[in-house]
Amino acid sequence: MQLTIRTLLGATALCAAAGFAQAETLTIATVNNGDMIRMQGLTEDFTAKTGISVEWVTLEENVLRQRVTTDITTKGGQFDIMTIGMYETPIWGKNGWLVPLNDLSADYDVADLLPAMAGGLSYDGTLYAAPFYGESSMVMYRTDLMEKAGLTMPDAPTWDFIREAAAKMTDRANDVNGICLRGKAGWGEGGAFITAMSNSFGARWFDENWKPTFDSAAWHDTLTFFKGMMDESGPAGYATNGFNENLSLFQQGKCGMWIDATVAASFVTNPKDSTVADHVGFALAPDKGLGKRSNWLWAWALAIPAGSSKVDAAKQFIEWATSKSYIELVASKEGWANVPPGARTSLYENPEYQKVPFAKMTLDSILSADPLHPTVDPVPYVGVQFAAIPEFAGIATDVSQEFAAAYAGQQTVDEALAKAQKLTADAMEAAGY
């Protein structure tokens, strides 16, 4: 049946002479986040306009990264479009592994992309991936529980305030955890969170000579603080919780606070999914008074692997999915609060979107992240919650596993940091740094 429908679509397209050379099918690898799942539900609009069918391979975040990295490095050719981020894009673009997106249509309006997003998805001035949505991280909190605790959330809280509030909001008898944070192993899961947090504590992955610094007081303070706060006020099993697990806990009313991706704001305030939708407030990610906040910068973006035989069709899909008109399509069906955020300047100039309660805090968070100067002390790398070098993903995944073992009580913080120091030093030496 599917083949017949595709054939008919192709025949219709040819008859209409509407630029549909033939009915093609694109295979797209994507992450199982809510915005991506929403996009899959709207792809009939794309197929109706172009005659191009879409097959989705939807994967959990750690698995997605593994699959697309393996595919592109081995030239496997499994995917016509990949969902990747700010870490992979410049490295893969430099290696010639991605198709440049330097000829998108005038209607697409590349100049409307937020500079932070376009810059992070480019190499040497050429765009290699188009942002589907952009994000930083921020505090999402229960306004009713904060009031019950007798506290007022500042717009720009400190970590000390967050820990105090988490303890006061924790109600074990009613299954309410004061705070939910990522502890799950994976460089882009718990690894991303603890790296962004460490920036605010004065830590850094490497000194200016590429020597790892896990033996520093700043890293010890970061991990000790995180584990202490989560043991006091976090959910059981937090060492295995990532974005989706914490989203579910928050929506069920089991978290007083959650510090995570700004993109989550539309899910926690959506009454269809969230039991606490009417009681959510927002604040900047916390700091320690050292001049750096603990928010990251990221975009989930769409890119075309080099050597794809369907480049033209893939570009049509990328233009559709990351366009102003796609944003309007989502708004018409789901409301402005549910459009993909953080990618386009025009969205934040739109009076309708300005009414969304988390719009300003999202933009403020994105603009306050500085990938060129992510840490208190100077570093030789760029990237806020990652270091933009090819070796980072493997090293940081291993480091995050040691940290998760410490969170779970399987080893001490000191043991985890000592192992992190050694494995990172060994890997960097082997890589020739």
Short characterization:
Helices cover about 45% and strands about 15% of the residues. It has helices at about 1-15, 35-40, 45-50, 60-75, 90-95, 115-120, 145-150, 160-170, 190-200, 215-235, 245-250, 265-270, 310-320, 325-335, 345-350, 350-355, 360-370, 390-405, 415-430; strands at about 25-30, 55-60, 80-85, 120-125, 125, 130-135, 135-140, 175-180, 255-260, 280-285, 300-305.
- Measure the end-to-end span: 56 Å
CATH class of the largest domain: Alpha Beta
Report the biggest beta sheet as strand number plus sense, adding barrel if it closes. Answer: 5 strands, mixed
Helix content: 40-55%
Radius of gyration: 22 Å
Q: Can you tell me the residue ranges where pLDDT is under 50 for at least 5 consecutive residues? A: 1-21
Q: At CATH's second level, what is the architecture of the largest domain?
A: 3-Layer(aba) Sandwich
Secondary structural class: alpha/beta
Instruction: Give helix and strand order, one letter per element, not per position.
Output: HEHHEHEHHEEEEHHEHHHEHEEHHHHHHH
Content of β-strand: 5-15%
Q: pLDDT average, as an integer?
A: 94
Strand order of the largest sheet: 2-1-3-11-6
What would the CATH topology of the largest domain be? D-Maltodextrin-Binding Protein, domain 2
Specify the number of helices. Answer: 19
Secondary structure tally: strands = 11
Quickly count the domains: 2
Q: What is the CATH H-level superfamily of the largest domain?
A: Periplasmic binding protein-like II
Shape: globular
